[in-house]
Amino acid sequence: MNYNEQTKYFKKTFGLKNEPLAISFTNDKLATDLMIATSGRYQEISICRAIKLAMDGKSIIIDDKVLKYPDGCNYCGLTEMTKNQKRRIQDYLIDDEKITGSIISLERMLRLTSIPLAGIADRIVITPLDKTKIRPDMLLFMCNPGQASRLISLDTYWDGLSPKQQVIGTLCYTTIIYTIMTGYTNISMGDWAARIKQHFTHDMLFVSIPYERINNLIDAMKEISSCKEVF
Asked: CA-to-CA distance for 109 and 208, rounded, in angstroms?
């Protein structure tokens, strides 16, 4: 299947309101320039806002010059964290967004998870799957709990291995970076501040699946397609 066919298949099979998002880390400037030329956006933005715009059909190109918050640049591996940046991140996540209650709890949240090395790529592309011009590194599904349950069941259909989950942290970390760095499928509720700011619906969950697992997931969908009451 090409990307457009995959999009139609996922939307029809699961009844998704929003098509899956393709997320790619790339150094390929030609591909991102092409995306900008075909109505993509390159502007100051946060990761959570980029996800919301991509849900509405936009293609977003992000680098360290336009990513709005320093924690996003650091979490996404675009920049090295300086001491001054770390202090700003502490103030922002503890005092402003209130993601966690203290410096120590924030440090645990950061250090006990998988943070990418600085300079992992020059830019990140977030786009609806049928608009991508480059192979995704992962797909992000915005769905309800029932749809999330089916995605996880199909993702584990062949190996029977439960993915290791990371449910706490900022939305940019739990929806993108954890899966990118570990290769694990993840279910995220997103952080409450991002949900409020971007007006994500109350029943929305975020399911992140490495793209290398997608063909097996589609094969599982076909394997059980004769059982109509499953979907």
From this structure: 19
pTM of the predicted model as reported, rounded to 2 decimal places = 0.84
User: Domain map of the chain by residue range?
Assistant: 3-225
Residue ranges of alpha helices (H) inside the chain are 3-14, 29-37, 47-55, 70-75, 83-90, 103-111, 145-155, 171-172, 178-182, 192-198, 214-223
- Cβ neighbours for 225, distance < 8 A, ≥ 6 positions apart: none
Identity of residue 225: S
Identify the three-state secondary structure at position 11: helix
3-state helix, strand, coil in the chain (%, to 5): 45, 15, 40
Whole-angstrom CA distances from 67 to 48, 50, 175, 183 are 11, 10, 16, 24
Residue 112's CB is within 10 A of a number of other CB atoms, namely 9
pLDDT for 231: 45
Please choose, from the candidates 121, 123, 101, 130, the residue with its C-alpha nearest in 3D space to the C-alpha of residue 10: 130
How far from 212 is each of 40, 45, 51, 135, CA to CA, in Å? Answer: 25, 28, 21, 10
Amino acid at 185: T
Mind listing the pLDDT tens digit for each residue in 6-22? 999 999 999 999 999 99
Between CA 99 and CA 4, with CA 204 as vertex, the angle to 5 degrees is 120
Q: Which pLDDT tens digit goes with each residue over 113-130?
A: 766 667 788 889 999 999
